[in-house]
Amino acid sequence: MNRIIAAALVVAAACAAAALPGPAWAGAPSPAGAYAYIGYPNDGQVVAANKPFRVWFGLRFMGVAPKGVKYPNTGHHHLLIDTDLPPLDQEIPSDRHHLHFGAGETETMIQLPPGKHTLQLLMGDDMHVPHTPPVYSKKITVIAR
């Protein structure tokens, strides 16, 4: 009788654990080890304030494809400026803090007002949703003077 109760408890615990919410990711699968990075500017670099400067995007173990193109292990870049990562189970916002590069661009020109700013990349799938697991870069800081 004790074995039956113990087995029932193990099954109940496994079912309860399976019902617990895990990471809230909804996007297309990403390949193991994939990561994004900002190739330029470098962390801590000083850039000219109120003048365009180039930001180029790097990506490893994954390919770039435009929005709407559903192909395994691909996505497109989103540049996050002065903000944290958005919810990873929803479409990435599109505003002045979340720039979309849905045509598959791998670089852009931006300008920033004077001050300290953060930049970070986040990959989105064919529908602008972060991958599962999400693929993003380290957040870097630039100083606009």
TrEMBL record:
Pfam families assigned: DUF4399
Ranges where the DUF4399 domain occurs: 55-142
TM region(s), chain numbering: none
InterPro entries linked: DUF4399
Record keywords: Signal
Keyword Signal: yes
Secretion signal, residue range per the UniProt entry: 1-26
Name of this protein: DUF4399 domain-containing protein
Organism listed in the record: Paraburkholderia sejongensis
